[in-house]
Design a protein that fits this description.
The protein is an all-alpha fold. Among the domains are: about 1-195, Growth Hormone, Chain: A, CATH 1.20.1250; about 195-255; about 420-485, no CATH class. Helix content is about 80%, strand content about 0%. The chain is built from 22 helices and no strands. The protein has helices spanning about 5-25, 30-40, 45-70, 75-95, 95-125, 130-145, 150-160, 165, 170-185, 200-220, 230-250, 265-280, 285-295, 300-325, 330-350, 360-385, 390-430, 440-450, 455-460, 465, 470-505, 510-515. The longest helix is centred in the last third of the chain and has 38 residues, at about 390-430.
Amino acid sequence: MQNSKRQWLALIAMCLGTFMGLLDVTVVNVALPTMATHFHETFTNLQWVLNIYTLVLAVSLLIMSKMGDMYGRKKIFLASIVIFVVASAVNGMAPNLLILNIGRAVQAIGGAGMNSLAMALVASNFAGKKRGLALGILGSVIGMSTASGPLIGGYLVEQFGWSSIFYINVPVGIITVLLTIVYVQETPSYGANDRIDFAGMILSAATLFSLIYGLIQKEAHTNWQWTNLHVAGWLIAAVILFIAFIVAERKVKAPMVDLTMFKSGHFIGTIIVALALGVAIYSFNAFLTVLMQNYIGYSAFATGLRQLTISIWSLILGPVTGILGARYSKRKMIGFSLFLGGIGFLLFMNAMTVHLSFSRMWPAMILMGITNGMVNPLLNTAGMEGVNPKEMGMASGLINVFRQIGTTIGVVGLGLVQDHRYASFLASHMDKIAGMPAAAGSAIKQALVDAGPFAGHGIAFSARMTKMPFAHGLQNVVLGAYSNSMRGITITSAIVLVIAGAAALILMRDQNQAAKQDI
C-alpha cells in the first residue's frame, strides 16, 4: 500500500479523470447555439453531439470495466485518459459535424474507462476508514461533475468559444496521466490468462445500445407512440439480446459479468438506488436548465451559477459522508437521504407557479443537493462492500451503467410526463383566452404542442405574438401549462426517490452484514 501522501495524490488523479469524463455528458449543452452558428447546422442535427456521447459511454462502461479487471485497472485507466484527451483535441479542431460526432464517440470510450475504473482503483488503493473517505470524495466529484456542466461550459463558451470546452481537457488530461503514472498503484491482472468473453462483450454492448438508442428515438420524436417500429423495435431487440446475454454468460467458464453478483439483495439495492439517482436527480438537471434559461431568462453562466445551490453540496458533503459512513448505518443514511430528496421535489412542485422565480426554488434545490451529496458517495462505498477484489471493476461499472441508464430513462420518461401535462393544460385552457378567435386558438395550440414545452415561451413571447390583442392571455396560459408540466415532473421524481429509499432500507445491508454474504 502506498504511503499517505502518495495515496491522496493518486486520488486527485482518479477524481480528475472522473470529473472530465462525466462533465462532458452535460458541458456541451450550453455550447449548442454557438455550434449551430459555426457549423450552419440545425439543433436537430446537433443533438447527436450529445446523444452519441451518452450512447457510446453506456455501451463501453462494462467492457472497459472488464478489461481493467483482466489486464490491470491502472493500465486501462491510463489508456482511457489518452484516448479521451486525443479525441478532445480532435473535437476542438473539428472542421465539420461528422468529424465532431466521430470524435465524441471515441471520446466516450475514454470517458467510460475513466468513470468505470476510478471507483475500483480507489477501492484497491485505499483500505479501512481511508477507503470510505476516499470513495466519499470521489462520490462528491461524481455529483459535482454532471451538475457543474452548465456553469463551466457557460463560462468557457462565453469567454473563449465552443472549442474551449474540448481543449480544456488536454492540459487537465496530461496532468492526470502524469499523476496516475507516478502515484496510482496498479491492481493485479485478474484472469489475464483467461479467454476473453467476446460473446458477453458483444451481447452486453448490443443490449445497452438497443435500449439507449430506442429511448433516444422516443425522446427525439415525442409524437411517436411506443408501438412505433423505430422505438418498439429497438426496445424489443434489447430484451432479446439481454436474454441471449444471460444464456451466454451462464455457459462461459470466465464470463464477462459474474451473474452471482445479482443474488445479493445488497447489490440489487445498490443498483436500484443508482438507477433512481439517474432518473430523478441527474435527468432533472436538463429540465431545470431549460426552466432557468428559456422561462426565467438567465444566461447559461447565470443558470450554472444558480445550480450551484444543488451541486455545491456534493463538494461539501462528500468527505463528510466517508467519516459518517464509517460510524453509522450507510443503509439508513442512503434511505432517509432519498426521502429528503423526495420532500425537496415536493417543495419544488409547490414553487411551480405562473410567476417562476429562483427565490421560490432554492429551498427545494438545497434539499435535492443534500440528497445527491449524501447518497452518491455512500453508494460508491456501499457498492464495493462484500465484492470480491477481482470483481470490483465490474461492480463499479454496473453502478455507473445503471446510473447512466437511469439518466436516459429519466430524460425520456419525465419528458413524456411533461409533454402530456403540457398538452392537457393547453387543451383545457386555450379556448378560454379572451379575444382569441377559435381558428387562431386551434392553430396556435397545435403549434405549441408540436414545438413542445421547451419552446413554448419563445413562441408566446415572440415579437409577432406580443402584438396580438390576446397576447397577455396566451402568455399566461403557456406559463401555466409549463408550470403544470413541471409539477408532473417533480411529483414523479419524488415518487421515484421514495421508492428507492424504501428499497435501500429493505434490501441493502450494513458492512457487518454484507461481509457475511458472498457476492
